[in-house]
Amino acid sequence: MRIFALALTAAALSSCTAGPPPGPVAMSPANQERLAALLAGKVAGPPTGCLPTYRSDDMIVIDEHVIAFRDTGRRVYINNMQGGGCLNIDGGRNALVTRTPTGRLCRGDIATVLDTASRMTVGSCVFGDFIPYTTPGG
To answer: Measured between alpha carbons, how far is 10 from 20 in angstroms, rounded to an integer?
Structure first.
């Protein structure tokens, strides 16, 4: 009986071990097209830790993992959110709320996903590096 109890305990503990981390999430074809249209004719530059300027009306949610920030007609910054992304951000009635005392968004800043109807927090996420895509010339 004691051996059975030990075997049962060992089986229970082994089921609690963490498996490999999840791989990158595949983007839907529709979102791939939206991102491609936004980046058409633009070239990626080196990643930067913070956006030089930030206006919330220039934010474009591609999906829960990729958010774009339009700087000018020539430049767009792409952010691949860290971890699990901004769950529930692309539901249509939710808003991404940031608190930035400096007025700049930076890598590691935490954003809250807010249901605009109920005003309840429905998620949160962490910003990664900002990758600038710029139209060459002009």
So the answer is: 20
Segment (H or E) for 115: strand 110-115
The residue assigned the tokens 């860290």 is 82
Burial 76-98 (b: 16+ CB within 10 A, else e): bbbbbbeeebbbbbbeeebebee
- Cα 87 to Cα 36, 40, 63: the distances in Å are 22, 27, 9
Name the 3-class secondary structure at 125.
strand
Is the CA virtual torsion 98, 103, 104, 106 positive or negative? negative
Whether 121 and 113 have beta carbons less than 8 Å apart is answered as yes
Give backbone dihedrals phi and psi of 58, rounded to 5 degrees, phi first.
-100, 10
Evaluate if residue 5 carries a pLDDT over 60. Answer: no
Token pair of 132 as six digits: 């600038």
pTM of the model: 0.76
Predicted local confidence at residue 134, as pLDDT: 95
